[in-house]
Specification:
single chain, mainly beta, 4-stranded antiparallel beta sheet, 2 helices, 12 strands, about 15% helix, globular
């Protein structure tokens, strides 16, 4: 798979734990845009990453946050980040050293496994599964984590989608974990809106 070294770790953004992976020599990303669109359902607004070539819609009444990580194109939270409670969505695109296809997808799982299991207190709630979203192959993970700020247990649904050499990652977070049931349908609607540009 990729010969590039991956750095795996965890970061706290606005009090929200997020899994992070960074490539040491990944290029800088151009700014992505958020636009209202007629293709998104009424309660959602579309985010477009023109450079990486994808779009997804998220709840228009959620808080849009800014990341200092150039690879993170979108961070939104249901509640103000200082509350450190509720749902959040993070989207990131990384350029890998080589394209990922159906043929070499199992090799990519070594990278996605390291990203997911690299944080402290991670407990897989289901085995990773192969997914296809908007025609792109990838993996889906469902796991719990311990928030370092509050000590609460939260839940992530995490998608890794591969568009040639680009790995697009979506982390859907519920904190505390009891919030997941109420957010699951919305998270499904958001990932269902994903499309390739």
């Amino acid at each position: 798979m990729a010969t590039k070294s991956m750095k795996v770790g965890a970061a706290v953004l606005g009090g929200v734990l997020i899994a992070v992976a960074g490539c040491s020599d990944s290029p800088k990303k151009e700014a992505a845009t958020t636009t209202s669109t007629t293709t998104a359902p009424a309660a959602l607004v579309e985010f477009r990453d023109e450079k990486a070539g994808w779009a997804i819609s998220y709840p228009k009444d959620w808080n849009r946050l800014q990341s200092q990580d150039a690879d993170v194109g979108l961070v939104v939270s249901e509640k103000p980040p200082e509350i450190n409670n509720g749902g959040s969505i993070l989207a990131r695109a990384l350029t890998l050293a080589a394209p990922v296809t159906e043929a070499n997808l199992p090799a990519a799982k070594e990278v996605t496994d390291k990203i997911v299991t690299g944080g402290e207190g991670i407990q897989l709630l289901a085995q990773p599964t192969v997914v296809h979203q908007a025609g792109l192959p990838g993996y889906f993970y469902f796991y719990s984590f311990k928030d370092p700020t509050t000590g609460q247990e939260g839940v992530h649904t995490h998608y890794f989608l591969f568009k040639g050499p680009t790995m697009i990652s979506f982390v859907f977070q519920a904190l505390p974990k009891d919030n997941f049931q109420g957010l699951a349908h919305l998270f499904d609607e958001v990932i269902g809106s994903f499309r390739v540009l």
